[in-house]
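Bench notes, bay 3.
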Amino acid sequence: MTEDLTPAEAYAAARARNAEQATALAPFREMYEFGLDPFQIEACQALEAGKGVLVAAPTGSGKTIVGEFAVHLALTQGRKCFYTTPIKALSNQKYADLVKRYGNAKVGLLTGDNSVNGDAPIVVMTTEVLRNMLYAGSQALSGLGYVVMDEVHYLSDRFRGAVWEEVIIHLPESVTLVSLSATVSNAEEFGDWLDTVRGDTEVIVSESRPVPLWQHVLAGRRMYDLFEEETDHGGRGAARREVNPDLLRLARTENTRTYNPRDRRRGKMVREADRERERRQRSRIWTPGRPEVIERLDAEGLLPAITFIFSRAGCEAAVQQCLYAGLRLNDDEARRRVREIVEERTASIPTEDLHVLGYYEWLEGLERGIAAHHAGMLPTFKEIVEELFVRGLVKAVFATETLALGINMPARSVVLEKLVKWNGEQHADITPGEYTQLTGRAGRRGIDVEGHAVVLWQRGLDPGHLAGLAGTRTYPLRSSFKPSYNMAVNLVDQFGRHRSRELLETSFAQFQADRSVVGISRQVQKNEEGLAGYREGMTCHLGDFEEYARLRRELKDRETELAKQGAAQRRAQAAASLEKLKPGDVIHVPTGKFAGLALVLDPGIPAGRTNGHRGFEYHDGPRPLVLTAERQVKRLASIDFPVPVEALERMRIPKSFNPRSPQSRRDLASALRTKAAHLNPERHRRQRAAAADDREIARLRTEIRAHPCHGCDEREDHARWAERFHRLQRDTRQLERRIEGRTNTIARTFDRIVALLTELDYLRGDEVTEHGKRLARLYGELDLLASECLRERVWEGLKPAELAACVSALVYESRQADDAVAPKLPTGNAKAALGEMVRIWSRLDALEEEFRINQAEGVGQREPDLGFAWAAYQWASDKSLDEVLREAGMPAGDFVRWCKQVIDVLGQIAAAAPAENSTVSKNARKAVEGLLRGVVAYSSVS
């Protein structure tokens, strides 16, 4: 209270208030109905003092307030502010927020889809747009005072992360950078790097959530708290959190159940008692169904909720299950408002397209307050779901993890069905960082007193492991920065080779690599001390045991080498036998998941034919497409044929056979079994081992037996020490190579890229050739391939729809496995051009191998994927949405997203293609017009 202050304290407080009123922060604070948190005030004060800031705070804590203050400062000072976001949906959202505050005249939007008022003092854009501006030396950069990089932790993204570092490195020194990040465990390290490349940068880290989060496990009818109530309150207390003992007992009971109802026991009473005990246990700990979970949350007052299901099909199925269960979360008034909003937002979509898009089933779910949200949905539909959820008109959303990335859709509760997800290669446990990101949606600031994270009980759930996920804040920021061809020509054009090399060495990737060398050096020193101890342990009084151990290793290595040669020889024989197969051959697959009788549909021989899913050739030998006796059509690999195979019989394949038709497969498989079930393959005889006649092996065995240490009584003890010595020595050498490899890694990769571009005449020393200037305008994973196609005039004379089909191969990446049926392609000139693109890629691939440019490290050109060519061709040829989606077998959202990406690259090609003696530029623009219609045109985000 003021009356409790001494006169001196009251005077000091008055001076502090007056000083604050004189700052830009004071009027900014008055714009908000709520008070700012300490971390927000600290960051804003640092900004006003002229410092850059890195703010790392949990999802939903209000980091964007700091970005909005940068906007306020820019307007106050008469300067510009660019607000960058990683995805177009976030850009659109932030644009709408800023327009509401400052008006249309002062705010612009630049994304791949939209260009609105680009000369405004505040411009919201995707990060790629700003990167392209910097390389092009855009006039829009004039007067730029602040750049806000929202979700800056995206620089860990292995596909797009490099863009963030390019922007940070290349922004003019006069620009103040505001970096907003999720809570990361190495924020100080990232801040140190920003301090190095951008100057004085304040790091502000906030660990506390604005709304406390309670963790639960839902098992059967009971909701268990994950942690004991008295040890921690909502995750904010400092006390050590203990796992709920009731939950631990439940897990022990579940995991030690040994009763099997099929056991035969004597005595009816014993069996009845066991069955009753089993029933009681099962009634407590089943995994609740999806409608049951929503009903339970509704009864507990925990809606709205987002349920994360790591599958698009699972999200759609969950909505259907809730509809079939009769769930209704909206009253009549809410249903009416939902219908009004949806009909207004979808008014531009033709009625015939609504049927194709499943509009009416989707609307029924929305009216009941239930929806799915995933990348396969039409962008307009996703936007409507987001809007209705924020308005409280949708109360249960089933979403994939992509929802956790930035979109402002907070809920009261978050439900996780499982703690395992498919990471693109295998089913893996989610990480603490992913768990934090997903559960960060729970708890709406200013609405909810607390948020709730609910994990559904699954057989084998370990409460201790779950507590580790919930209690760990390990989400390290790791650079994914790699030089690209486009980056190289742009840098050399602006700065020359030497200065470009120096700039790349200032990247966060190199900063982290240099720091990691210190720890590796310490490990090398420890290993050297260990080697001295192992050397002493293997000392033998009869002779040089190190020499004896070397002979034993050489013998083992020689035996391993011969075994590998034998295996390679057998593989070669098997591959040669596969090359002799023809369509209609009946074979016996010797091993693997599809072992048994099979009919060859396509021999899959790498002879430049269109038999590959991702291109025109296979590079690992023949991969026959077969129909198994069990009616499965599969593309087999060399691993399925460890021994040579030969045709047992011949069968005619009907011309009408369709591998996608279950009836066709059933009929042909039946004919196969009838014709060939009695046939038995000839057993393959094993050849004599090469080691039996090898002179080198004989010599080594003689030397080993003659060595003095061979007769030592403690020989095998010495050998164990020698083996440890050898392993540690090998590990130490690897560490030394890592130290050598991590020094100047980015610059060395840049040097190799520059050497390849010089070989192809894109660069001549510090000069960028005409071909190089064209490459500088092409951004994307296959930038060099696109440039080579323009140089070799591969796309000349193509019609717009044919050009769209070819360009689709530069952007599309299939979600299907490599054994899928070969994609359908347009005929004529388009097919020839696609074949020529694959030939050029093969040449570039060989050149990259020669220059040691490694795709596995994220550098270089992946193989073009032809899987979207037919869909792009059909859509650009004005075919109906129903026909295109049916033939593509693709969700509307994916179709729209790929079309938008094709349109983006077509725009780049139109700008980069020669203006004279070329039809490519004109036809690229026409192809854009052909693609930008219907669902693609009225979807405002991609």
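Next record in the batch:
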Amino acid sequence: MTPGRRSSTFTRLLRHGFTDPSAAERLLDGPELGPVRDDPVLLEALGATADPDLALDGLVRLLEAQDDPGARRSLLDTVIAAKPLRDRLLGVLGASAALADHLARHPTDWQVLVTYEPQDLHPGLAEFERGLAEATDPVTLRVAYRRCLLSIAARDVCGTTDVAETAAELADLATATLRAALDMARRAAPEDAAACRLAVIAMGKCGGHELNYVSDVDVIFVAEAAEGTPEPKALRSATALASHLMRICSETTVEGSIWPVDANLRPEGRNGPLVRTLSSHLAYYQRWAKTWEFQALLKARPVAGDPDLGRAYLDALHPLVWQAADRENFVADVQRMRRRVVENIPVAEVDRELKLGPGGLRDVEFAVQLLQLVHGRTDPTLRSGTTLDALQALAGGGYVGREDAARLDEAYRFLRSMEHRIQLYRLRRTHLVPEAEADQRRLGRSLGLRTDPVTGLNREWRRHTGVVRRLHEKLFYRPLLDAVAQLAPGETRLSPEAARARLVALGYADPAAAMRHLEALSSGVTRKAAIQRTLLPVMLGWFADSADPDAGLLNFRKVSDALGKTPWYLRLLRDEGAAAENLARVLSAGRLAPDLLMRAPEAVALLGDGDSGGLAPRDRVPLEQEIMAAVGRAADAGQGVTAARGVRRRELFRTAAADIVGSYGTEANAPETDQGALVDRVGAAVSDLTAATLAGTLRAVVREGWGDALPTRFAIIGMGRFGGHELGYGSDADVLFVHEPHEGADEQEASAAANRIVAEMRRLLQLPSADPPLLIDAGLRPEGKSGPLVRTLKSYEAYYRRWSLVWESQALLRAEPVAGDEELGRRFTALVDPLRYPARGLGEDAVREIRRLKARMESERLPRGADPKLHTKLGPGGLSDVEWTVQLLQLRHAHHEPGLRTTRTREALAAARDAGLLPAAEAEILDEAWVLATRVRNAVMLVRGRAGDTFPTEPRELAAVGRYLGHGAGHAGDMLDAYRRTARRARTVVEELFYAD
């Protein structure tokens, strides 16, 4: 071959899509293709395939496998002369290495692609049964199955059938295969066949007439005894036949396997009997079945065995499918099912998942099936087991917008086509888009993307998954808006009854009120209504994902009424990606955050990701600077404290919103997994905010009453959770007040001034207003409520030296200056350090006294009727158990272990672990219990709007607490069990560390 000839052929091969022209040139020059190597028809046909290199290699292998030169010549002549065969054969060879292997093993099977009769264009079940008729054993059944599959693939890659028709043909071929396998099983065991009537019910994609190239075939078996046969014997015979059928299809032979037959959708799954009678099936579904099992029955279809029994099965069970939406737990089940299950997908594969990934096939299928369950009760036209047929029926009935349905149909067809071509290549069950460029190139070309197949494939794939992601939620809610806003002329709209049914199914307890809110939000021609019509379909889905969708929608209407005419509000929700979702989460998570927001709706700006600071907590210094500046501008102390309380309200909202969003997660970010970090952020933020508010209030009161002439120095000492930086949303501020008269000042005048400051601070911080009050509790002061509110530093010194009790030393472990004179605060902590970190530790009498006090507190303060095991503060393994255990370790060892000298529980616990005072495993148990109990208390305040130490009893409130803690809908019982289990483990450690001698 001359160099010029080689260069010319090389170039032509490149132009026709070959990626390895040198190898292709050698194959074309080989003896097999010698007679036609220069025929332009062959090269053009190869270039039209998905993978010309693969197609050429497969053709050469097929020619090599022919028995004699005459057969080889006959194949070549047919390929060149008959365009239908050429397109079919080369199309298959260029798309499927597995079918090329089959042809190489069975070199005469190419002839099934020659015939082009009308029935060959769109064969049905009868044609496939004829194609399998000659199979006599599992091996010949596999060969016949592949031969039929060859014809299906040929029609698919040539465009003779679309993706839906291909899926239906694959389901028909599966049906014929199941029938052939059952016949083999019966012939192998005629006595078993005579003892029973057995029906095979196809489920899943096979039942829905939308099967993949390679997929498990889901089935359910139902049997009845033949006349004169006892039922137990009949069931044993039916089980033997069913098991043999499954082995015939699933086992690997010299010709490989066909596909696994999966019977796990049967009642009780793998734990249940393989075969049941019809009455046993019916009893199970009437009493025990879950919502997802009725969802699965949408696709049930008798395919093999006794046809009368199969029809009886459907007649008995189908009515139950359409009653599923009336079940008591339907809403919880729906909410649970609607959360995409991606936890089991490896992180590296999520973005390549066609089926379960975001915007994948499962999103479409689930959405359609859910709407069928809700509306199919009253509309029999919706009861198709085929996804695309059901989607078309939903659009025709007005249950889905026609434009949305058309776009979803297009996206689903594209994604299913991708799935088909990926599986066809190796005939392997996979839903992952390949990563290799060569695989993506072949895949793109097989879908008609020829100019730049890799770029085009990824662009179209992302476009269609994006469509599915956007429409997945919109599909449920857009028709509701159209029903109330009377938009989209010419479309069939949901009836009021259908709209109500949909809202109830999606968790709305008061559908009539929800429809009124939707009408108010979306009706009209204003810019506000137009933007809200765009936002609502997605926001309604976010509301429905919460424990109280009704509250979320109502609160959104309130915020919209307050801010709807404000340009920045609508722009924020429309343009800032996180704002709308964050708002939906916050408005539907409970009462506290919405209440805080309604008092000053402009705080909604914090939910965006712009210049407002977002939801990140603010540090103490800038907070205090802002409050001090506001106090400085105020005309009097009342205005100054009002400004400080306004900042506090806004920052409480910021903290609560960040906590909710972090706990729930968003579409872009998974929920925060470090529960301790969430607790620490809330505790630090609320404690810093409380300290800054007290500092500003102190400044306002002193400025108005004394100006720069206050006769005493004044400091506020944080105690309890405040001093420990562990305040919750509903915590009071535990404090001590200390003062020290200036040199030369009258002590009585200084004391009076200090007491006036305290009284005025408490009054101003509790005045009724739009802002939540800040309650100051000085009950931990010397002599308790009987003692003076304010003492001088010398008075504290004299009292602690002479009268201090062990409980006061324990309380002082949390003492930390929070506001006022810093130097006086430092001197106070220096004064109490010897008390809280005693040089000799604790004597046995003191330890016994602490234990006695704890027992007394638990017996006297635990509310009557409360379940101790669920009381987060005083119950076994609760906050009191953990904190008193840690504090006992501090009192005993902090003098010698500097790490224990901290006011924070978790820090002290970690320091005790590091010092070897308790094993790491026990420290982890105590830490987990303390964090969980704190999270529960925060959740109760967020949900109910008032503090509480026990779980709510009202179901919606309990469910909302569960959602905050990471438990899905319907798992409130699991949440309570998890709390009891965590607390029980902690109590075991407490009994060892706190009570053991």
